[in-house]
Amino acid sequence: MNSAKKRTYDAIVIGSGISGGWAAKELCEKGLKTLVLERGRDVKHIEDYPTTLMNPWEFEHRGELPLEVQKANPIANRCYIFKEDAAHFVVKDAEHPYIQDKPFDWIRGYQVGGKSLLWARHTQRWSKYDFEGPARDNFAVAWPIGYDDIAPWYSHVEKFAGIAGNRDGLDTLPDGEFLPPFEMSCVETYFKEKLVEKYPNRHVISARMAHLTKPQPIHLEQGRGKCMNRTICQRGCPFGGYFSSNASTLPWAAQTGKMTLRPNSVVHSIIFDEKKQRAKGVRVFDAETKEMMEFYARIVFVNAAAFNTNLILLNSTSNRFPNGLGNDNGLMGKYVAFHNYRARVSAEYDGFMDRTTDGKRPGSSYMPRFRNVYQQETDFLRGYATVLWAEREQSFSSDGLGVDLKTNITTKQLGNWKVGMLMMGETIPKASNYLALDKQQLDPFGMPKLKISIDYDDNDEKMIKDFFEQSETMFSSAGFRNFKTSDSHQAPGLDIHEMGGVRMGKDPKTSLLNAWNQLHACKNVFVTDGACMTSTSTQNPSLTYMALAARAADFAVKELKAMRL
Ligand SMILES: Cc1cc2nc3c(=O)[nH]c(=O)nc-3n(C[C@H](O)[C@H](O)[C@H](O)COP(=O)(O)OP(=O)(O)OC[C@H]3O[C@@H](n4cnc5c(N)ncnc54)[C@H](O)[C@@H]3O)c2cc1C
Predict the structure, then answer these.
(1) How confident is the model over 227-244, as a mean pLDDT?
(2) What is the 70 CA–ligand 1 centroid distance (Å)?
(3) Average pLDDT, the chain
C-alpha cells in the first residue's frame, strides 16, 4: 500500500472532546473507517487520571497551586477549575497564546477528551422558544432547524450519556430520557413551592446532569458505573460516573475496530481539491516531531471547539476560498457570542433549622428562563436561566489542644441556611463580536494567532439589572433576608460557552452551514461544535452539540451511501 493510501480514511474528525467524541462514535458505529485527530496528548480513561484517588492531604500544596504558577497563568487562574488536582488538564497561558483585542478569558483543554474531563455536566435541552428566538426577536439569523428536528437526537444522546433529571413537564425546558434526579435541599424545594404560588411561570427544578445515578445496561456495557457523588469529577472519574469522551464515546468508537485515534496531531488546515471542488483531507503538524503531513477522507467533521474550529476554517485557504473554507459571504468568525455569568445573588433563610443536607451532590437546582418567553416584556432582549443552591453554613472551632482540638475540629457547627443564585444570560450575537487571524503572528506550528474581539453590550447590562431586581423580589417573597448582589465584571470567556462564527442558517448569503451542519459551499465538511450555533440561548450548550453531532453524522453516512457526497 502506498503511503497516501495508508493515510486515507472514510472520515476524519478534528478534535476528541465532547462533540468530536460523539462524531467519532456515530461514524464508527455506522461502519466508517474514521481518523480522529487530536492536538493534545493521549489521556486514557482511569490510567491517566493521576489525582483521582488522592486524599486532600496527599496534595503537595493541599489543593492550591503555588503562587508562581498562578501568577504565570493569569487567564487560566481565573477559572475555578485551575487547582492542583486538575491543572494538568487545563491549557497554560504561555503554551498557546492568543490576541485579546478586548479582554477574553479563553479556557481550554488540549488533550484526548478535551474539556469533557473538566466540564460541570449540566445538560439541559433547548426548547422551541430557544430555536425560534432569533426569528421572533429579529437578531442574528433564523435557525434552519426547530426543536422537533433535534428532539429525537437529544433522546439518542441522553440515553447513551446518562442524564439524571426529573420529568418536570415544562415547555421552556423539555423533558428527556432521564435517570433518577439528584435530590433538592429542603430550602430549594420550599423556594420552588413558594415561587410558583406567586409566579406560575417560574419553576425551580433539580438540574439535569450527565451523571449515572442508576446505570442502565447501555452504561454498564460502556464499562461505566454508578456516580459516587464524590464531586471531584474534574480529576477524571474512575467509575465513569459522569459522561466524558474518555469514559464513554471514544472507547465505544474504539471497540468497533473502525477508529484510529491520533493524539499530538495539530490540524493546520483542511485541504480543498480545486478540481473536484470538495475537501479532500487535512494538513497536520505532528506536535512531537513538528513534521507536516496530510491525511485524506471523503468527509471531514470539524470539532476542535468553537474558536479553534473558526481558526482552522479561516486558515484553510485556497484559490476557491481565499478567505477561509466556505467563507464566501465573509461572515466566518463573526456573530460569536457567549453566556453572561457575571451576576450572582445571595440571601439567608431562618427556617428549617432542624434540617440539613446529607452527603455531597454533584449538581444544583436550576430555574429555566422565565423572562420574555411568551412575549417581549422588558426593555432588553431574551433572558436568563439561573443555577440555584441552598445549604447550611458550616464552621468549626480550632480552639484547644489535644483531645479538645480534635473534638472541636471534627464537630461541625451548623449556621443559617444560605441561598445563592448565578445568572446565566443569553447574549446576542453581533457582527462586531468577531474572531480573526493575525497572519503576522504565528505560533510554533505556523498557525496564525487567533484575535478575539468580544464584549458585553447594553442588553447584557440591562439583563443584569433585571436579574438583581427579580431575584430580590422572588427571594423576599419567600422570606429570605440579607439579600446581596455581586457583579464580578469578569471578561467574557469564563462561562466557557463560546459559540458561533460558523453559524447555521437557511440562506448561504447570511450563514455558513445548512440545516445538517454542512458548509453551504463545501458539502463534505461538517461543523458540529459550538461554532455552528446561530444563537446561544441560556442553557449549558454541550448537550446540544452532542445531539447536533449525532444528527449530522447520521445524515453524512446516509449521503455517502447515496453517493451524494
Ligand atoms: C470548568 C468547565 C465547566 C463546564 N461546564 C459545562 C456544563 O456544565 N455544561 C455544558 O454544557 N458545558 C460545560 N462546559 C463547556 C464544555 O466543556 C464545552 O462546551 C464542550 O467541551 C465543548 O465540546 P467540544 O467538542 O466543542 O470542545 P472540547 O471538548 O474542548 O474538545 C475540542 C478538542 O479539539 C482539540 N483541538 C483543538 N484544536 C485542534 C487542532 N487544531 N487540531 C486537532 N485538535 C484540536 C482540543 O485539544 C480538544 O481536545 C464547561 C467547561 C469547563 C472547562
Answers:
(1) 98
(2) 22
(3) 97
The set of cell numbers assigned to 191 is 423556594
Quote the longest CA-to-CA distance of the chain: 82
Report the nearest atom of ligand 1 relative to the CA of 107: 53
pLDDT in tens, 35-45: 999 999 999 99
Among the listed residues 172, 248, 186, 358, the one whose alpha carbon sits nearest the alpha carbon of residue 18: 248
Write phi, then psi, for 189 (nearest 5 degrees). -65, -40
Instruction: Please name the residues in contact with 233: beta carbons below 8 A apart, sequence gap of 6 or more.
Output: 121, 241, 242, 362
The CA 529 to ligand 1 mean position distance, Å, reads 9
Hey, which of 496, 502, 544 would you mutate to test ligand 1's pocket, going by the most ligand atoms within 8 Å of its Cβ?
Answer: 496
Range 283-310 average pLDDT: 97
Per the CB < 8 A criterion, the answer to whether 515 and 507 are in contact is no
DSSP result, 76-104: GGGSTT-STTTGGGS--TTTS--EESS--
CA of 20 to the centre of ligand 1 (A): 9
The confidence score (pLDDT) of residue 1 equals 60
From atom 33 of ligand 1, which residue's Cα is the shortest distance away? 15
The ligand 1 site (C-beta within 6 Å) comprises 14-20, 37-40, 81, 107, 109-111, 114-116, 118-122, 265-267, 303-305, 308, 312, 496, 529-530, 540-542, 545
pLDDT over 90 at 355, yes or no: yes
| Per-residue model confidence as pLDDT tens digits over 383-428 | 999 999 999 998 888 888 999 988 888 887 899 999 999 999 999 9
Kindly give, in sequence order, each residue whose CB lies less than 8 Å from that of residue 1, ignoring residues fewer than 6 positions away.
Answer: none
